[in-house]
Write a structure and sequence with these properties.
Radius of gyration: 22 Å
Helix content: 55-70%
Distance between the termini: 68 Å
Amino acid sequence: MEYVVYEFPDYAEQVINLLLEEDWLIHSFSLNDEKEIFNPSAYLYNSEMSGVEYAIHLDLNIYQYILNAFKKEKKNKLHRSAIALVVFAKFTNVKFDPTIAIYEKLNYKNQCPDELIDDLILFRQIDNAEMDHLAEFVLSETDSIKLPNPACLDRSQLNEKLTEYRRLKKWDTLYVLVLKLTELYFCDRGLSNEDKLEVFWRWCHEEFLFSLVATCLAIKLFGKQRIPKLMKYAPRHSAEINKKHLINMTWDLFLLDKFFENWVNKPDQQEFIYASNDKPFQEVLKTAIEVQSNGVDVILNRDLSPALIKSFLTTFEQVMTKQGRSISSVTDFQSFREGLIVDYESALKVRA
């Protein structure tokens, strides 16, 4: 049997223990032990022996923690944990992809492109900083981060690329799904939570579009292990605040959908991981990964009653056919979708 031995810095175990405590990484790998996601040897071995390239996609929070580790005068545990992730990526040769965080800032935080470019330059400087010094920061031996000189970037080209797509694909479709879930949550009080799940699944299949991630979001909103924090809309808030909450929920659904888009379309030699500290988001994504991986053999008894599991699996099988699809007769989907947005925004009292 052939053995490969890798040597890691003395602080590697402390860095990994810190990341294990945070538990930020979400993936679709088949692991016998979830802690294996932090096994640095596995990344290096798969890279050297099979040519696999790994990328970590950062959510906005963790991207911001990395930046603030340098920007903020007072350092906290999240700053050091975020830099621990940078150190981990260095000794495993894993690359970072901050695209999602950047587009959230651009499209939904309304940060101007010049500020985004400044942040991206700073992020790359931190990512290119000397590993041992970053480790000193992680271990609280210093509160400063020594940055290398910034790389030469064409700001005008970056600006043009950032503003090329101001509207993300699928946004309006995902927004309709969020509106429908919110309407069921607050406006259909005569229905039990189990009824609401069945109504949503049936509506997706018959009247709109089936979405794995929206289905799993519904399970965590109405199932046995409900996560109230996923519902950000509340009738007590103003229309302006609730509209922002609905947009935030849609962004969460977009990130979930993007995970599966990347998963389905990735080349064989490329693997990716999401890094997020949003625990409710993680729970929805883990459920969706379980459904995608196991199909009709998925076990959802922690979330659903036996009757609901049967209903879910029936719906899951129906989506492969056109049976009962009244939406099939819609000739102008864009106008149809806009009509749904008007109706649901009016019902939720967020229509301008």
